[in-house]
Every structure is written in structure tokens, then in C-alpha cells.
Amino acid sequence: MACVKLGSKSDAFQRQGQAWFCFTGLPSDVVVEVGEMSFHLHKFPLLSRSGVLEKLIAEASEEGEEGCVVKLPEIPGGAKTFELVAKFCYGVKLELTASNVVYLRCAAECLEMTEEYGEGNLITQTEAFINQVVLRNWKDALKALQTCDDILPYAEELNITKRCIESLATKASTDPNLFGWPMREHGGPMQSPGGSLLWNGISTGARPKNSSLDWWYEDVSTLSLALYKRLISAMETRGIKQEIIAGSITFYAKKYLPGLNRRQGSESSSRLAPVSLGTPPSEEDQKLLLEEFDRLLPLQKGLVPTKFLFGLLRTAMILRANPSSISNLEKRIGMQLDQATLEDLLMPNFSNTMETLYNVDCVQRILGHFLAMDQITGGASPCSIDDGQLMGSPSLTPITMVAKLIDGYLAEVAPDVNLKPSKFQELAAAVPEYARPLDDGLYRAIDIYLKSHPWLVESDREQLCRLMDCQKLSVEACTHAAQNERLPLRIVVQVLFFEQLQLRTSIAGCFLVSDNLDGSRQLRSGFAGGSNEGGWATAVRENQVLKVGMDNMRMRVCELEKECSNMRQEIEKLGRVKGSSSSAWGNVSKKFGFKLKSQMCSAQEGSVSNQQHGHGKVEKLKERHGKSKKNSSKVD
Q1: Fewest CB atoms less than 10 Å from the CB: which of 192, 278, 513, 519?
Q2: Disordered: where is this region (predicted)?
């Protein structure tokens, strides 16, 4: 640490209990009381350096009381600082440092230690040290700014606080890789003006490692919140990037809000790990800090990690922070909900009622903010994207990513027995239909909910199943749904119908490909002429095999249609037993909006095994209808 040496005579001062004595061979003729400490000194050294002490000593001497006593109740830095002031007045060697120079500068101002009372007085010495040493060095400027907190009114009056903040802001906005000296002294080795490392003051020629732009995060986190806010404001005026500012605020918050570190993983670097505090702030202080961080954080999307915002929101709910702060955090998260993970959404319910295990209402509000922002920004609709691109592209639209996230969240909260069907349905329906290219995730969540709530009546189960579109189920999901006994019968019939439509569409497409293949082979054979007779024979054989397979496929499709016709007759009989006024099949057709027509398909799908699988599902559905018929007969 740089210092300035002033005067001599260091052994004359001795402390005895709560009193300091100066032994110079002459008896003390004045007592200066600073707080609980008393200094037994001599008049002349004091009044020759300080205008205030000169006046006070003169006033005390005029009163004529035995012994001259001077009281200094409000001197910056207290007794410890006045000890250094007294030694300076006696000419004792004094070491100025970044830790004491602010106290001494403010005390010298209060005691009027100007050049009128001696050349090179304490005001001049301390001011020169601040300008020439402290403000030119990162660590010294930071330490001096920290000491300003104790005597802030005095430091503000002398503009010391502002000068330190400006110095730090300027250094933080400068690339340390370009100007490694002396700003790299915050924790690294000393460097020469050329940037090479120094060893015992000798340039080694070695170049230091590059510094990242967050090198100052840990240093400024030692400041009080009031000074930290002023420093951040000064940095913003100097054009420091908002993402760097947001990173510093995040680091500062993690240090003073212990709840944010609860889910920190091992991926965070040790250098950026929050400094452990001896005593964590009280809940009230943490609440105030959290509300301040909400005001400090930039509003731009993506500058603050979504996981950190969820941590702030979780902490705010635990501390029962201001509702406006909680609402602001929910809006911030809503702006970038597509960057969240399922773990982030699983926030416990901290309310006293404890209706549900997880805070579903909060997630629904966040989703609402995201959808509102998506409409304002004109987010791309997945409908405008090619189906193949949407299914296979790793870069889905934000609304599609959020829909997938919400479906996963619904599957996680579905086992909660306290989650009401209306709440589940409200959250699931909040996602627009176009946001889900497939409804497999929603089907999985509904299935888990039905499994965890077996007491639901049929009407509630049907209402939940209406959330999904059976036409948007994959082949695997359709296969599972057709055999799912938890689903209402109407939904199973609807799934089978749309599965049959998909089958016919696939077969028709395959037949079209086959015709194109035949035409292209004939075209190629025309060009090839007689020289490719062997290749033509092979193509003919392949075509014959393909046609045989297609004939088998047609037979299977016909069998499937016959089974569907039989199923229709069974349903009609079931309707007559119950005394229905109209055909039950007509009601099913009217509700589902489709009609089954027997027709002969002239194409193939994938393999004969798929047709056998479809035949098995129809048989299983007939078995379920038979059970329903027997039960109805028993009831009648």
C-alpha cells in the first residue's frame, strides 16, 4: 500500500487505559476529550496546526478553571482518528493509507487544519494523497469508498464519495486486457506499464492472462447497497453493457440473499461463488434488498438468467415481500418463459391454505404474461411452419417451447389429489391450440390426472379429454389411447376413427408412390431398350411382389371396415335397450362430427402387422361394448 511519511518522534505517545499521554519532558497543559477517550497534550502543537483547537483552547483558558479541558464530541473517525491527528501535530511520522485517509481528510476539515496554520498541513497532505494515489488505484479507491459509509455526510460535503465512485466506474468500463496496469491489481500480480509481469520490480517479459469483463463483480459486492446503487448508476452512464450490469447485480444478490443459493449446482465457478457471510441479513433486510434488486435489474429480455429470476420470486414469496415486487418478478419471468425449465416452474405453494402442493396460480399468471407479450411482439405461429420442419427442427418457436413446458408441468402436478379439475383444465386451456403441433404431452398429463383421480365422474372425465385434439395424437399415442380403459368410451371411438383416417391417408399416399414408381420404371425401360432386359425382369418381379402385398392390405382393410360395421350395429342395439329415441350411432356421429362409410381402399400402409394390430383394437373395443351391454341388462 502506498503511503506518505510525515514528521518523527513516534515513542512519545503512550496509552494508559482510556487515556493517551504525550511524554516530552513537559507537563500536559490541556486535555482533549473525544468520546470516552481523553488525550493529555500540550497547547502549542495543537493550536499551531488547527484553527478550531486554537479557538477552543482560548475559550477554555479564559474561563479560568483549573486545567484546560477541550471536548470534541463529533470528530469524524472518533478517538482513533484524533490520535493520528494529534501525532501529526507533534510531528510524529504518519502513514497515510486508503483505510485512514478519508477519516483524516474529514477530521482535518472539521479542525480547520489549513495552510494558514502551517505549510504542508493535514488538509493538503491528505488531499494530495487521495488525488495522486487513491483515485489512481482500483483497490485503494474501493477501500476509500467503503470508509465513506461511516462518515458519509462529511465525505459527501468534501466530494470524496463521488470522486471514488467516478474513479471506480471509469476503471470498470475500461478493458483490463488493454490497460492491464494498474487496474489489474485487484487480485492479480503487479504489472509494468507495458503489461508484462513484475517480479521484485523487474519486468519478466511474461504476459498476463486475459481478464473477463466480470473481474470487478466480487470487489464491488463488498459495498453497502446505497453506495453500490450509485456505482451501478455511474457505470450505466459510462456505457457499460446492460448484460454486464445485470451480472453484477446477480452476483450481489446471491451474496446477500441466502435463499438464492439453495439450488445452485456445481457448474458455477469457484471464483464466482458468493462470499459467505458471517451473519446473514435479517428477513426484513432481505425483503428490502429484494425489492431494491427488482428496481435495479434491467428490463430487457434475456439479460438476467431465468433461473435467477425464479429464485428471486421464490424468495419473495417466502419473505412475503411487497405484492408489487412479486408481480414485477412474474412479469419479468413471463417475458422469457421460453427459456425456463420444468424444475424452475415447480415452485412449492407457500400460502397458509396449502390447497395444492405446487403454486399453480403463479404459473398461470406467468403464462398469461408470456402470452400477452407474445401477442404484442407478434410471435410466429407454428401453423405457418411446415409440419416436417416443425417436427424435426431443433429450433422451435417460443410459443411451442412454452406449450411443451406447460404440458410437462401439468404432468408433474397431475398426481396432486388436491388439484381440482377446473384448475387443471384452466391451465391446460390457456395454451393456444396452434402452439401444440402434437397433443401427446397433453394426453400424457390428462392420463396421469385421471389415474390419480379415479373418483371423477364420467362428465368430468369427458370434459378433461376434450382439451386434446385426437387428430394431433401420434401413432404411439393413438395406440395407447385406444387401449386406455381410463378414457371415456366416446374418446376411444374418436381415437379409433381418426387412426383409421390416418391409415387410409397413409395407404393412399403409398399407392400414389407405387404408381409413380411404375411409371418411372417404364420410362427408364423405354430409354434403356433391349440392352437392359435383365434389369427390366427384376423390376417386373419387384412390382409383382408389391402388388401382392397391396392385395393383402386391401383384404385387411376390408376386414377392418366390416368390424366397424358390426360395432355400429352393436351400439345401435345398445341404444335400443336403453330406450333411446334415435340411433345411438347417429348420436355418436353427430357429436363427433364424422360418418363411417364402407369403401374399398386401393393402397397400402406400412405392413400387414399394423392391420392385425388395428383388428385387435377393434376386438378389444367390442369386448368393452359387450361388458357395457351386460351391465345395462342387469340394471334393467
Answers
A1: 278
A2: 262-281, 603-636
